[in-house]
């Protein structure tokens, strides 16, 4: 398929991850003296650890209340999904959809694609590599907007409840939710997509 395929690996070259200088593989960069790596160091154990931690954190993030509404002296906690149902009942469909997509669909899809990429790498599923590489690009693209997840939930819930003489307090789920979003973001950075293409290239060997 690629009879004259040249990569940094089969040419024993390295692109310094710090200053970008292309050079013969050695221990340190000949220009900036940073440690030289052909791939991000410890990429796989780091990504597995971060992705599993994020997945575990999504449980309390979705099962605990994300907002506590204090009204007429009584306190009421709402989970994310209860918030979505609340807005659907009050015919606030746009708000319901924004919260559902930003705080449930997108975080789960991002993690799902990350786990798919890790499994494709682990099981050497060569045929799936082009598709999973595209999916990872999509995850990194939406990652730029992913901190919106946290703010959307907070602002939208607060906005509507403020109109009802209620005070809204952040609840226990806020911390695991924010942590899950941040860990997922770091995991998309620690995963080195070139590890997939290394397997892809190996198919004729
Ligand atoms: Zn360098």
Word description of this protein:
With about 200 residues, this protein is mainly alpha-helical. The protein has two domains: about 1-40, no CATH class; about 40-205, Butyryl-CoA Dehydrogenase, subunit A, domain 3 (Up-down Bundle), CATH 1.20.140. It has seven helices and five strands. It has helices spanning about 45-65, 80-90, 95-120, 130-145, 150-160, 175-190, 195-200; strands at about 15, 20-25, 65-70, 75-80, 165-170. The strands form two sheets. It has a three-stranded antiparallel β-sheet. A two-stranded antiparallel ribbon has the order 1-2. The radius of gyration is 22 Å and the shape is elongated. The structure holds zinc ion (ZN). Zinc ion (ZN) binds near residues 21 and 32.
Produce a short descriptive summary.
By secondary structure, the chain is mainly alpha-helical.
What fraction, in percent, of the residue positions are helical? 55-70%
CATH topology of the largest domain: Butyryl-CoA Dehydrogenase, subunit A, domain 3
Put simply, the count of helices is 7
Overall 3D form: elongated
β-strand number: 5
Write the element-wise H/E pattern from the N-terminal end onward.
EEHEEHHHHEHH
Poorly predicted parts = none
N- and C-termini, Cα separation? 12 Å
The hetero compounds bound to this protein are: zinc ion
CATH architecture term of the largest domain: Up-down Bundle
CATH C-level class of the largest domain is Mainly Alpha
Structural class: mainly alpha
Give the overall pLDDT as a whole number. Answer: 86
Strand order of the largest sheet: 4-3-5
């Amino acid at each position: 398929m690629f009879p004259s395929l040249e990569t940094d690996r089969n040419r024993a070259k390295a692109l310094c991850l710090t200053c970008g200088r292309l050079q013969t593989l050695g221990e340190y960069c000949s220009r900036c003296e940073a440690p030289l790596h052909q791939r991000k160091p410890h990429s796989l154990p780091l990504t597995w650890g971060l992705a599993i931690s994020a997945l575990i954190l999504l449980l309390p993030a979705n099962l605990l209340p994300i907002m506590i509404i204090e009204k007429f002296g009584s306190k009421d906690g709402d989970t994310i999904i209860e918030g979505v149902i609340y807005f659907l009942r009050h015919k606030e469909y746009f708000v319901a959809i924004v919260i559902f997509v930003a705080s449930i669909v997108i975080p789960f899809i991002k993690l799902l694609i990350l786990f798919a990429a890790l499994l494709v790498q682990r099981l050497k599923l060569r045929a799936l590599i082009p598709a999973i590489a595209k999916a990872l690009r999509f995850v990194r693209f939406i990652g730029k907007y992913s901190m919106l997840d946290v703010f959307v939930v907070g602002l939208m819930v607060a906005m509507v409840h403020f109109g009802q003489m209620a005070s809204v307090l952040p609840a226990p789920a806020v911390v695991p939710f924010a942590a899950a979003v941040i860990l997922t973001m770091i995991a998309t950075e620690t995963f080195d997509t070139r590890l997939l293409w290394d397997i892809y290239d190996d198919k004729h060997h």
